[in-house]
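User: Show me a protein chain along with its predicted structure.
Assistant: Here is one chain, sequence first, then structure tokens.
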Amino acid sequence: MTVTGADFVELDRIAVQEAVRVVDLATPVDWARDTPCAGWDLRRLVAHMTAQHFGFAAAARGAGREPEYWREPEDMSDPARTHRSAAASVLSAFAEPGAPEREFVLPELGAGFPGGQAIGFHFVDHVVHAWDVAATLGVAVELPEHVLVAALAVARQVPDDPARRGPGFAFAPALEVPEGSGPLEEALRLLGRGPERWPARG
């Protein structure tokens, strides 16, 4: 499927709003729970998501080279509120006229990227992280089929670089994809998630 930069702005909005929804479901006892991101509890995962929102918002506005925008917040005493504020910031930045046509500097990837492509990176990251949070809490992630199909298309293009996968990184090494997998399961497995290990609780 062909997805434009403007399409990614809308797809990303849907993914980020779903991530906000599931983060807001967490209770105080949930923040120390292990997550599908090896080595990260839920508080650390949400801190990472928050930093990515602020960093991408800065990149959309030409300040992606500034390292302070990419740091995880020191105060994560209210993770849901902090994450909600960061999500609003990135959605506002991506919605600015011309954002998909700008160059985004992404220090973690060591380069600048066309805005539409960079927003696509943020989009697939938060489809997966929305699932990570939902899986941690034992609930289902709720995303439309066209969003999942678009996320799979991006996930298929993510390099399986051993130097950037594993504990401490957002994605683990890719897993085998069983025949007949749906778009969400395939995307998750390509990005190192084993959905069968994290069933939703009824």
